[in-house]
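FW: tagging you since you asked about this chain on Friday. Here's the raw sequence from the shared folder, copied in full. Didn't touch anything.
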Amino acid sequence: MTRSKLRLTTAIAAIGLASSLAFTGTAQADYPEQDIRLIIPYGPGGATDIIFRLISQEAEQYLGESIVPVNMAGAGATLGSRNVKDADPDGYTLLGSHDTIALSKLAGTVDYSFDAFEPIALLTQTINIPTAHANHEVQSADEIADYVRENPGQVRFSMIPSSTDHFFWAQFFQEAGIDMADVRLVGYPDTGEQVSALLAEEIDFAMFNLPSGGSFFEEGTFRPLAIAHPERLESMPDVPTLRELGIEMDHSTSRGIFAPKGTPQEIQDTIAEAYGQALENEEVQSRIENEFGSVVRFLAGDDYLEFLDENEAALSAAAENIDFQN
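HL: got it, structure written out here
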């Protein structure tokens, strides 16, 4: 090849590369230009589904394109997360999920966790509540340890295997000084069956929250034993926090938005900003707090990464006390 042809070829290649970079930059600047799919790894109608739909409906007003929720339940909520993990990192496929991402890895269901995604923003937390039936002699969470010591091997705690409440009790036993060998963990397929079991007094304790247990707390059928949150809930001002009772733990279902690994930072920031603005809407805040017993907590960027790291570390410590084969 002659020197002049080589210069021409190099110049064409440089123009092509510059055009490609310019196109990529323009595409990011113009984002979004089409509907965005939000994969929700649960079926329709539950708290996770409704909360993400509520906030996304408001967030899309700031994006100028629709956010289309897609329910993709199955495989312990990993069908939906895997779909997003393997999607193109272009900002048009997002995941709306929670702690189950880390729980699934710790339980051995999948080989990936939060770090397989670009965490966009934490949106809400649903505060969990250790609960007894109204006829139980235990009046508050700090009495559970003594009750177990007085009745070794007989005290029944309900949980859904490898789910949030399974980890809640493992962490609670660790912080309260309870030997897991002295308790009976009773597995149920879903929250509804746990509610029925506690109503029938077939179990001693369960972990609920306001969406699942609020009406029973109001009517006095169930007794909230503590709030697993740094502050008392406004709707239950007389119920102390676990920390007030000397049990140093907080526990909640923390819902956030995730994108495929490699999604450009500019797109991540655009999505986070839209959801942050959505959460400033007072009607949205009111519904989250009053209808779903949750609190708005918006974290993005490094703050959310730090939160996820701390959350996963706490879950990993609890997992050491769990036999996932039983």
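FW: The first strand starts at residue 36 and ends at 40.
HL: agreed, and The CA atoms of residues 192 and 212 lie 8 Å apart.
FW: great, closing this out.
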